[in-house]
Amino acid sequence: MREQLYSLKEQALTDLQPQDSLQAINDWKVKYLGKKGELTAILRGMGALSAEERPVVGQLVNDVRDALELAYGEKEAEFKKAERNKRLAEEAIDVSLPGRAISVGSEHPLNQLIRDIEDIFLGLGFTVVEGPEVEYDYFNFEAMNVPKNHPARDMQDTFYITEELLMRTQTSPVQARVMGAKSAEARANGQEHPDPIRIISPGRVYRRDDDDATHSHAFMQIEGLVVDRNIRMSDLKGTLLTFARQIFGESVQVRLRPSYFPFTEPSTEVDATCHNCGGTGCRTCKGTGWIEILGAGMVHPSVLELAGYDPTVFSGFAFGMGVERTAMRRYGIEDIRGFYQNDVRLMQNFKSRM
Length: 354
What we know:
Layout: H1 2-16, H2 22-33, H3 38-43, H4 53-90, H5 109-123, E1 127-128, E2 134-136, H6 137-140, E3 165-167, H7 172-188, E4 197-206, E5 218-228, H8 233-248, E6 254-261, E7 264-273, E8 290-299, H9 301-306, E9 315-322, H10 323-331, H11 344-348
Helix pairs in contact: 1-4, 2-4, 5-10
């Protein structure tokens, strides 16, 4: 049996040398070291050996197995190294080539404009306050001097969830909530009157508007509210003139036209001189020289009273603007739907503007 083992070792090592692939040496391993391999076949004959020979032959079997496994391991390492070197050569990166530029996006124009508007009003001493988009009918309408069944609700037809829950039509509910919270705080602290307010409230609002070039069922709005003693219409105009010149340029002028809103009295539409013609008249402004930018007015006494403010002591002004309309005017965009169609080509136009 010793001669068989020595012969097997020499034959196996001789057969291993010409093998030229991992698959070939794996087949070699199965042939000589597998469960049905030649070394295992020799081991089955150990039962015929005497008790004195078995330990000696057993040790020899282990030595032969170790020698074959060592030879197999060295051969396997050679093939794996060669395969790894080949793969590295094939996948090598030519670092002398110029790098490929990564496409960098730009901030959405609406977000940019909202941030700019917030910066302007923060500089004027305002505070930014946000509120829920799903709102109670009371805060959205009734607290804004629009009771149930009032015809003014038709101007802001919206999406109802229940009779008392709806998708807000404006960010005015934030104003009602802030005034109510200030009044409650004053009562809790034993104050005679609530504290003054100077806030803006940006956010998304919803209305059943026609989906055309200038309307959308969901859009961004920013409203402002100032409540204090001795607030006048001139304060409103001065604030809006400052805002318009910061957004559209120092040469811009504003004018106020009488209008109607149920939560302000008097109410006004605010126009700015046309960005295209500078006020001389063109097709963009339909020859008038003016373009409407927002609605505003003095806070209605009923709104103050509903919120817990004494209208004989306090007065205030409020204004509201559609961010999309302002962005269209500022950036020269003709269709409001472009803000929401996820076309990166539109966004790319703002990389150099922002």
